[in-house]
């Protein structure tokens, strides 16, 4: 009887890529619901249109590459990219903006490098950055946090795909934008003039971040990813904002709570930084990777040109992930770590 000639590792698991991606999709539900409650149904429309485009672009790329459609479409990776980009885009974005973003994410950032598992950069963040650099006006106009009852209903939100200019009256700058542009008012006075900013980080934004935090903690409980990268990012971001917080002067970069509960902080920490393909894979590497993203987020938010820096920070560290893994590989069992000829 001949032995099977197979290579290690020999561990087996019932958790497929599709199963993991479905868990990620479920974990986004609390954040999407809270976004829709405060900012209207535009986010749901973004996700629906982005999902249709993602499947279409994915099928097109697979067809051109001669790959079986059913096998690759059922892993849900295209849908995850669609939802991540749909959440990141401002509500009531025009159809063409979402189409350009999804084409950049699926065709350019994913399939140009060989498809799922071979892409060095996070596809959703590539699509987001392409749009942010190319169309800054459309990408920095968010709906005011008035609640779904005071914003366009679901049918009007679908109409906004084709006539977004009709809804400009319900848009405003985000708290990160306003703080970035402030150069004369104390933080307390700035908040008094903008009651929609809420208590710490912006009305609506605080609850959105808490909802994505809850979804991220559930993913850690489900062991979809480990805690190392997101916790390292949040700790370093909180540490930097604590060190440089001056109490609220006109030149303040914001308090630790402001940075933790505004913008895409929790969404980025638990749904972007933890991408298993483009992040570091060793345990120490994930700590370094997450910490550097937290550092870059603060540096770009406070001293850079963009108010929310999660996408740029992630893409920069995607470059560095292989380098980090190279120098943080765990010691092989049974071998000492050599340093200067000593073991």
TrEMBL record:
<dbReference type="Pfam" id="PF03116">
    <property type="entry name" value="NQR2_RnfD_RnfE"/>
</dbReference>
<feature type="transmembrane region" description="Helical">
    <location>
        <begin position="95"/>
        <end position="113"/>
    </location>
</feature>
<feature type="transmembrane region" description="Helical">
    <location>
        <begin position="125"/>
        <end position="144"/>
    </location>
</feature>
<comment type="function">
    <text>Part of a membrane-bound complex that couples electron transfer with translocation of ions across the membrane.</text>
</comment>
<keyword id="KW-0813">Transport</keyword>
<feature type="transmembrane region" description="Helical">
    <location>
        <begin position="257"/>
        <end position="274"/>
    </location>
</feature>
<protein>
    <recommendedName>
        <fullName>Ion-translocating oxidoreductase complex subunit D</fullName>
        <ecNumber>7.-.-.-</ecNumber>
    </recommendedName>
</protein>
<comment type="similarity">
    <text>Belongs to the NqrB/RnfD family.</text>
</comment>
<keyword id="KW-0288">FMN</keyword>
<feature type="modified residue" description="FMN phosphoryl threonine">
    <location>
        <position position="174"/>
    </location>
</feature>
<keyword id="KW-1003">Cell membrane</keyword>
<dbReference type="InterPro" id="IPR004338">
    <property type="entry name" value="NqrB/RnfD"/>
</dbReference>
<dbReference type="InterPro" id="IPR011303">
    <property type="entry name" value="RnfD_bac"/>
</dbReference>
<keyword id="KW-0249">Electron transport</keyword>
<feature type="transmembrane region" description="Helical">
    <location>
        <begin position="71"/>
        <end position="89"/>
    </location>
</feature>
<comment type="subunit">
    <text>The complex is composed of six subunits: RnfA, RnfB, RnfC, RnfD, RnfE and RnfG.</text>
</comment>
<keyword id="KW-1278">Translocase</keyword>
<feature type="transmembrane region" description="Helical">
    <location>
        <begin position="286"/>
        <end position="303"/>
    </location>
</feature>
<feature type="transmembrane region" description="Helical">
    <location>
        <begin position="227"/>
        <end position="245"/>
    </location>
</feature>
<dbReference type="GO" id="GO:0055085">
    <property type="term" value="P:transmembrane transport"/>
</dbReference>
<keyword id="KW-1133">Transmembrane helix</keyword>
<keyword id="KW-0472">Membrane</keyword>
<keyword id="KW-0812">Transmembrane</keyword>
<feature type="transmembrane region" description="Helical">
    <location>
        <begin position="200"/>
        <end position="220"/>
    </location>
</feature>
<dbReference type="GO" id="GO:0022900">
    <property type="term" value="P:electron transport chain"/>
</dbReference>
<keyword id="KW-0597">Phosphoprotein</keyword>
<keyword id="KW-0285">Flavoprotein</keyword>
<dbReference type="GO" id="GO:0005886">
    <property type="term" value="C:plasma membrane"/>
</dbReference>
<keyword id="KW-0997">Cell inner membrane</keyword>
């Amino acid at each position: 009887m001949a032995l099977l000639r197979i290579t290690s590792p020999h561990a087996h698991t019932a958790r497929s890529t599709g199963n993991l991606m479905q868990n990620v999709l479920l974990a986004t539900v609390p954040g999407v619901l809270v976004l829709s409650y405060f900012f209207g149904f535009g986010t749901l429309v973004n996700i629906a249109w982005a999902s249709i485009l993602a499947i279409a672009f994915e099928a097109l790329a697979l067809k051109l590459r001669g790959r079986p459609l059913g096998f690759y479409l059922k892993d849900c990776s295209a849908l995850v990219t669609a939802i991540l980009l749909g959440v990141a885009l401002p509500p009531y974005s025009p159809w063409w903006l979402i189409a350009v973003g999804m084409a950049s994410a699926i065709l350019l950032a994913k399939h140009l490098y060989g498809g799922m598992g071979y892409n060095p950069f996070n596809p959703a963040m590539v699509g987001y950055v392409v749009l942010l650099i190319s169309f800054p006006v459309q990408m920095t106009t968010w709906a005011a946090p008035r609640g779904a009852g005071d914003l366009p209903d679901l049918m009007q939100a679908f109409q906004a795909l084709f006539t977004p200019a009709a809804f400009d009256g319900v848009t405003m700058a985000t708290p990160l934008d306003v703080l970035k542009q402030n150069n004369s008012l104390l933080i307390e006075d700035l908040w008094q003039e903008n009651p929609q900013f809420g208590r710490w980080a912006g009305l609506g934004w605080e609850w959105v971040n808490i909802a994505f935090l809850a979804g991220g903690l559930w993913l850690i409980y489900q062991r979809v990813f480990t805690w190392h990268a997101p916790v390292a990012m949040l700790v370093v971001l909180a540490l930097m904002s604590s060190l440089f917080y001056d109490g609220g002067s006109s030149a303040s970069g914001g308090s630790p709570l402001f940075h933790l509960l505004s913008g895409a902080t929790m969404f980025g920490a638990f749904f972007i930084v933890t991408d298993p393909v483009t992040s570091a894979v060793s345990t120490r590497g994930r700590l370094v990777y997450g910490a550097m993203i937290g550092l870059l987020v603060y540096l770009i938010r406070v001293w850079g040109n963009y108010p929310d820096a999660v996408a740029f920070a992630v893409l920069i560290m995607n470059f560095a992930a292989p380098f980090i893994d190279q120098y943080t590989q765990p010691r092989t069992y049974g071998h000492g770590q050599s340093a200067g000829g000593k073991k």
